[in-house]
Design brief:
With 227 residues, the protein is an alpha+beta fold. The protein contains four helices and nine strands; from the N terminus they run ααααβββββββββ.
Length: 227
């Protein structure tokens, strides 16, 4: 684990993950938008040192921090999954999915799912064979007590979320209400409402998510403070 000396009070500790390709994609997106490290850190509510460590691939952010990063940098979450980056770049320096994957085999094999392990005890696996800027098809595993964000730092972003709990129990806070979902339960809600997702009890929770239109209005949402 790595802890930055200049982190703001209350900022969550980050988990060390050797992911230089993800950090490099974030760095290129930041530079393409003319943002310095300190300027980006102020926009997303973490320290400049944390941003630098994420870009170097030394730490992986929490779910909430990653949401604010991609929203501020105006990139797709799919761009960050562990798929080899394309030789060229798209959209002003932001890498897109490899051209050779476009229009290829429509099947995404279980053993080859692109995935992200986040510092807050959550693993995302992309179920689609290629990135899609309009729809995210994700299998999420929440470790026991894993969470998308702390109880006092609800997140929000563009789009609508549809979730189905395959196993375990999931807590979903939307605004001032919290719902407890058992295996077989499902939920849908407007992602612009402040929300939090977390495993209930001492077991992991596995959840299928479909998120539609996450980036349609993300730039209109101010970054929420973390911690």
């Amino acid at each position: 684990m790595a802890l930055d000396a200049d982190k703001p009070a209350g900022e969550r500790r980050e988990e060390v993950m050797l992911t230089p390709e993800i950090g490099d994609r974030l760095r290129r997106a930041r530079e393409a938008r003319g943002l310095g490290v300190r300027a980006l850190s102020r926009l997303i509510g973490v320290s400049g040192s944390t941003v630098s460590q994420i870009e170097l691939g030394n730490v992986m952010p929490s779910v909430a921090t990653l949401y604010r990063l991609v929203s501020t940098l105006e990139i797709s979450m799919d761009d960050l999954f562990s798929v080899p980056p394309a030789a060229g770049t798209e959209d002003g320096g932001v890498p897109g999915p490899p051209p050779e994957q476009q229009g290829k085999d429509p099947v995404q094999r279980r053993e080859g799912r692109p995935s992200l392990k986040l510092a807050s005890g959550v693993v995302w696996e992309r179920l689609s064979n290629v990135a899609n800027p309009n729809v995210e098809f994700i299998w999420s595993t929440y470790d026991p007590h894993g969470e998308s964000c702390p109880p006092d730092g609800l997140m929000r972003h563009g789009g609508t979320e549809f979730g189905y709990v395959q196993s375990g129990r999931l807590g979903v806070t939307i605004g001032f209400r919290t719902y407890e979902l058992d295996a077989g339960d499902s939920i849908s809600f407007n992602s612009t409402e402040p929300h939090r997702l977390f495993a209930l009890g001492d077991d992991s929770a596995e959840v299928l998510w479909v998120i539609v239109g996450r980036y349609g209005d993300a730039r209109e949402l101010p970054p929420a403070p973390e911690g």
